[in-house]
Design a protein that fits this description.
The structure is a single chain. This protein is of the alpha/beta class and 411 residues long. It has two domains: 2-74 and 266-410, Rossmann fold; 79-265. Helix content is 49%, strand content 13%. It has 16 helices and twelve strands. The chain has helices spanning 20-36, 52-64, 81-94, 101-110, 129-138, 146-152, 160-175, 182-204, 210-239, 247-260, 309-317, 321-324, 335-347, 370-375, 382-391, 397-400, and strands at 2-6, 13-17, 44-48, 69-73, 99-100, 143-144, 264-265, 273-277, 286-292, 348-357, 378-379, 406-410. The strands form three sheets. An eight-stranded mixed β-sheet has the order 7-4-8-3-9-10-2-11. Strands 1-12 form a two-stranded antiparallel sheet. Helix 3 runs parallel beside helix 9 (210-239), helix 6 runs antiparallel to helix 7 (160-175) and helix 8 (182-204) runs antiparallel to helix 9. It starts with a strand and ends with a strand.
Length: 411
């Protein structure tokens, strides 16, 4: 029997499989089919509510269809050296009246390098951990103002090179404006990060692991971008009269941006298909989004609670004064999961394909996500799915037809 379904430009498609493993394999077959049809791999993104449950199966599917997968991971930006370097300088400039030696030496330990015209002996930069430790021991327990450190510090107990380097560093700090304009933020911090990229990163190649080096590069790029964003926001708030010029405000803005940046994939490559968690899709825009795991209990996920499910259900059905205090709060709802689902749908500029499986590994039935009923997807015929998995090229009719205006299925 033949049936015809009308499909709008952005109507989602639904792909149903029996197991999670087959679901992941079908998703990678669809990536392969889209690429075979001329869609660049960079225009395809896979999204899962819980990436860990799918990663192994996706990697297997990728090998079968000769694809490369790049799994996005949350970037702990505040743990990367470039970000710590920028923030440590902001901390010093924000509190120039009272600076302990440990705070003062932190940028040096993180790889601060003076401007080229201030370097008398480039071979000693960045300072070694041993040199920075010698500085900390020499002034252990000391606290002073920034001007006091420069004027009062006795360097007689230091080696000549170490004393010269310390004096160069203090002079640079004292030359920084203490009531920065928006332009001064970039002029102060970006050259430091550029010198780190040019002189420190090359020394790390071959001495640290590839993943660690990759994370440092990611941290550098994100910190450079956030310094520019911080300067822009800082300028807007100065214009609005909300803040006075101060490094303390800059430090707070940079910290806030650092803590709210979404994840980034571990090993960026233009030839890999991105796999990301649903909470990273809020800023995503890409032609094709393949969303995995649209089953009840996973997307949405049951809220964690000390109350068992029957108890929560009973509380919802009652309306006494005593139970109102125990009723589920917003944390018990699926609001967050729904927001992430809507972000996932909205990220696709061409088509969003929704995947689900019907059984868990023990053969227990998995019900469809309640979100599916709200978006009314058009289901891909099982025979078309099997053909796609078999050859990795034959797309379902709804995707292969130009313009995605009609889908014809045969049963």
């Amino acid at each position: 029997m033949s049936t015809t379904a009308t499909v709008t430009d952005h109507q989602p498609l639904e792909v149903v499989t029996r197991t999670r493993q087959t679901e992941a394999r079908t998703a990678m077959a669809l990536v392969s089919g889209l690429c075979a049809a001329g869609v660049p791999v960079r225009d395809i993104t896979l999204v899962a509510r819980d990436v860990d449950r799918y990663e192994e199966f996706l990697l297997r599917g990728a090998r079968r269809y000769e694809l490369t997968v790049a799994v996005w991971t949350p970037l702990k930006l505040d743990e990367t050296v470039p970000n710590q370097l920028a923030q440590s300088l902001c901390t010093i400039l924000a509190t120039p009246a009272t600076i302990p030696v440990t705070t003062l030496c932190r940028p040096l330990r993180l790889g601060w390098i003076p401007p080229d015209n201030a370097v008398s002996n480039s071979d000693m930069w960045p300072l070694s951990d041993r040199t920075v430790s010698a500085l900390r021991r020499e002034y252990d327990g000391h606290t002073n103002s920034l001007a006091g450190w420069q004027a009062d510090t006795d360097t007689a107990g230091l080696k000549a090179q170490t004393a010269s380097a310390f004096e160069t560093y203090l002079q640079w700090l004292c030359q920084c404006t203490h009531a920065p304009s928006p332009a001064a933020i970039g002029e102060t911090l970006l050259p430091v990060l550029e010198r780190y990229e040019r002189m420190v990163l090359p020394q790390q190649q071959g001495t640290v692991g590839v993943s660690q080096l990759g994370e440092t590069v990611r941290g550098l790029q994100r910190t450079q971008a956030l310094v520019r964003r911080t300067a822009k926001t800082y300028g807007q708030r100065l214009d609005d009269g909300r803040y006075d010029q101060s490094w303390e405000v800059v430090a707070k803005l940079l910290t806030a941006y650092t803590e709210t940046v979404p994840g980034r994939r571990e090993n960026p490559t233009a030839h890999a298909v991105d796999v990301m968690a649903a909470n990273d899709t809020w800023a995503l825009e890409t032609p094709y989004v393949l969303a995995l795991g649209l089953v009840d209990g996973e997307w949405p996920r049951p809220p964690e609670s000390v109350f068992p499910t029957p108890a929560r259900d009973a509380l919802r059905r009652t309306n006494t004064a005593s139970t109102q205090q125990l009723r589920p709060r917003a944390g018990w709802t699926e609001r967050r999961d729904k927001d992430q689902f809507l972000d996932t749908l909205g990220a696709a500029t061409e088509r969003c394909i929704l995947f689900r499986h019907t059984e868990d590994r023990e053969g227990v039935e998995r019900h469809p996500s309640v979100f599916l009923a709200e978006c009314e997807p058009s289901r891909v015929d099982e025979s078309h799915r099997r053909q796609l998995v078999s050859d990795g090229e034959t797309l379902p009719v709804a995707l292969s037809q130009a313009g995605h205006t009609e889908a014809t299925t045969d049963e």
